[in-house]
Amino acid sequence: MPARYLVAAGLTLAATPLGAGPFETETARAAFGAEIRELILDEPELVGRALNPPVPAPSDIYADARDEDLGRLEAERAALFAETRPRIGPDGAPVALAFLTGPDCADCAAAEAELATLMERLGLAATRLDASDPDVAQAMDRLTLDTLPSYVLPDMMVRGQIPPFVLERYISP
Length: 173
Description:
By secondary structure, the chain is α+β, with helices and mostly antiparallel strands. It has helices at residues 2-14, 26-42, 45-51, 63-80, 108-122, 134-143, 164-171; strands at residues 87-88, 95-101, 125-130, 150-153, 156-159. Residues 1-20 form the signal peptide.
């Protein structure tokens, strides 16, 4: 406790202009400097706290939205990745994602062709879901997917056509 009083007194006195108050002489300033030095040597954590203040933990402002999305994905998983769905990729390959397409989608044919090439190269498959199917349209609504094409991975949803190299990074272990 006495050290804190010394620090408080030192800060108060340090705010006083030089040449005024108790530090008018070189001897007084030297004595005060010696006291401050001794305090810092006795209680180095004072300097440590000043130089390394605690950093508050970052907050994850998207945690709730992400958890809701993951919950929706889990609820739709069986329908999205069903064995009975049409496939893109090699026969018998493990399913890495669901590809949502539709008849009125200008980018879907190109996206599907790129996806087919990627799936063949990686030895993976994608289920193909057509948004004109009422069940698929309802699943898209529940997943809040409003864009075609869309890609649904076990832990992520991507709206719109994406380059194959980006998709590869998402599905590669």
